[in-house]
Sequence to fold (444 residues):
Amino acid sequence: MEYQQARRCRVVLVPLPFQGHITPMLQLGAILHSKGFHITIAHTQFNFPNPLNYPHFDFLALPDGIGAQTISADNFIATITAFNTKCKDHLQDSLARIMEKDDQHNKTACIIYDEYMYFAEEVAKHLRISSIILSTSSAAKMLSYIAVPMLQKNGYIPIQDSKMLELVPGLEPLRFKDLTITYFRKLDDLLQLMAKALDPRSSSSIIWNTMDCLEHLTLAKIKQEYQLPLFPIGPLHKTVPAISSSLLEEDHGCMSWLDKQPHNSVIYISLGSVASMDNKDIVEMAWGLANSEQRFLWVIRTGSTALPEGFQETVKDRGCVVRWAPQQEVLVRTAVGGFWSHCGWNSTIESISEGVPLICQPYFGDQRVNARYLTQVWGVGLEWENDMNRKDIEEAIRKLMVSKEGELIRQRAKELKEKIESSMNQGGSSYNSLNELVKLIWSF
Ligand code: UDP
Fold:
């Protein structure tokens, strides 16, 4: 509480209401609360968190008019656009009322918003308070977005099939197939959204759930582009005591099973909150796991109904299948020796913070960018680019978990964990960035 002062200073947080975005924003809220700030979460009615789980935050519900729906790659852009058009007036009016009561002892300092909730910047500007962007993905993803106008100018977009495996000039080691724009059918809609999310407008700075030791060069390039202070303060989840921000019910039963398994013996398989395997791939995965003879904890969100006959009898208690796991707790356990992941940014950060090497099976969005960095730059993952077939799955799992070939990857993962820990210790880069961020907010 080194910066806590006599006055109350309110920070308003505006998360994008998807699992991978809510989590880092709530973690940031908990960090700032621990530094003496009063936290108000302005949240869409869509996916509204249970306020009882966060007694130290105030909540402000933003009517969004979109009703209940499942988010997929197909409706992602339309849903984000709806939030940005429907939530603005309500946030502005509600904050104006709160701020009427501000005085020299109670102050609304700023709005921190998810980069995709850009309407919040207009609200801050209108109310004459500062705004800060939270980027919940990697700096490498942002750099790949920033490069889009240059790629358009040089005639690379739309990307031709023949170019897919070529390196993108200026973005190496990314190939054209790794870019988010490659997979969007409605490319114009995506380009418009990117342009809005990338424009910092009047925002004072950008907070990142990343570490300088991980993305130093990329952050430097972004800083040069934006000429704004950047605060890489990750890994957020290691800076605060665990807070549960899970939208799905976590199955804690798997933890007692996990605790009985030997050191580094379990591969954890999870594809995050949106991506999923089809039934055919689940069958291949099941037999790949069974034949690898490794222990496993497997998250199948859609349930285990697609598991093939004879699988349970074959693996017996060598494996555990759940609908949703308490992932951060899982990855901390010493029994976990590998992670088969879709490489969402939260999963990536959670895994490397614990020194857990990965098999990278990206699906869409920024996952391919993260996978490419995990495998080619940080050297802590195996790239999975094959069709799902049990033979290759078995081989990849053995390679990551036990074979001599995977030893270097396992070793590098341990070294990266140590670097990340140093960045969080007193005097480390994340530690210093957080102190600077706190000073900046107090100065508003
Ligand atoms: N997660 C979890 N239990 C699971 C699977 C995922 O708690 O069984 C959490 C995970 O810890 C991470 C988030 O869900 O914080 C997924 O975010 P990520 O950015 O990795 O992927 P997304 O869901 O956005 O694709």
The chain has a mean pLDDT of 94. The pocket of uridine-5'-diphosphate is lined by residues 19-20, 23, 246, 270, 272-275, 299, 324-325, 327-328, 344-347, 350 (CB under 6 Å). Residues 2-244+423-443 form a domain with the Rossmann fold fold (CATH 3.40.50.2000). DSSP finds 18 helices and 13 strands in the chain.
